[in-house]
UniProtKB/TrEMBL annotation:
It comes from Dorea formicigenerans. One of its GO terms (biological process) is DNA replication. This is AAA family ATPase. It comes from the Bacteria. SUPFAM superfamilies: P-loop containing nucleoside triphosphate hydrolases.
Length: 276
């Protein structure tokens, strides 16, 4: 108890007001800006003491600083999530802000807006359609929107995964596949373009099956048709596609090949700039 008394007695109490302060009728110092006390009276073990305290404007400034720090920490956290989750720089620019408002985009927005339910119910998507209809763009929009909310997302493809696993031993491969579990959402882009070797198909199945066991959502994009997915050419593909269709609800992404349109626009621009 004496230690507490000694501590309280050692606190230097301001006697005279500073230029921005004034002495109130109650004998306490007040802030001249917000007119709230910078001192207060406390009673400890029957003895009254005057102690320093924080006025309203100091408290508000402290709260603003704390809020700024939280916002800066959140920005840094999101930046790290994006660096880990989307390695291809151009994908980070594919956002809802740059998207045309189509039914597919509206669906994708609802997916992110209802993320808590999506995750709790393990609602995966299989985005399928012709080449160049914007399936990867749609998936990247979902990824970036969730990353902005601080949700860990990994967007990759099996070609990249298989290249990473190429020089790994079996234990290393297992740990690598298990590392995907730290992402709340896993997006696999362009299913069907990977190598069709026995080894490659085994690893593709291992990744999908591990995701299945975690009970976490999976989004897959593919140029394959639903008919191809439901009628695979062999048992190895059947295992993969059956698991995918169990985990992911097929969503058709309609449209024309945007790459062809972009190519034609560039050709016209080249003619205008260089040959006109």
């Amino acid at each position: 108890m004496n230690t507490m008394f000694d501590f309280l007695d050692r606190i230097q109490v301001q006697k005279e007001p500073r230029p921005e302060q004034y002495l109130g009728e109650d004998g306490l110092l007040y802030c001249g800006k917000c007119h709230t006390p910078v001192q207060c009276r406390i009673t400890f073990e029957g003895k009254e003491r005057i102690m320093p305290c924080i006025c309203k404007c100091q408290k508000e400034e402290r709260e603003r600083q704390e809020q700024r720090m939280k916002e800066e920490e959140q920005l840094l956290y999101v930046r790290r999530l994006k660096a880990a989750g989307i390695q291809e720089r151009h994908l980070q620019d594919w956002t809802f802000a740059s998207a045309t408002d189509t039914p597919s985009i509206q669906m994708a927005k609802r997916y992110t807006e209802n993320w808590k339910k999506v995750k709790a119910e393990n609602l995966g998507l299989l985005l399928w359609g012709d080449v160049g209809t914007g399936k990867s763009f749609l998936a990247a929009c979902i990824a970036n929107a969730l990353l902005e909310k601080g949700v860990p997302v990994l967007m990759t493809n099996f070609s990249k995964i298989l290249n990473q696993m190429g020089a790994m031993y079996s234990d290393e491969r297992y740990r690598y596949i298990a590392s995907f579990n730290r992402f709340s959402l896993l997006i696999i882009d362009d299913l069907g373009i990977e190598r069709n070797t026995e080894y490659a198909l085994e690893q593709v199945y291992a990744v999908i099956d591990e995701r299945y066991k975690t009970g976490l959502p999976l989004i897959i994009t593919t140029n394959l048709t639903i008919s191809q997915l439901r009628n695979p050419e062999d048992v190895a593909h059947a295992r993969i596609y059956s698991r995918v269709l169990e985990m992911c609800t097929p969503v058709h992404v309609p449209g024309h090949d945007r790459r062809t349109t972009i190519g034609k626009s560039k050709q016209e621009l080249v003619k205008e700039v260089l040959f006109s």
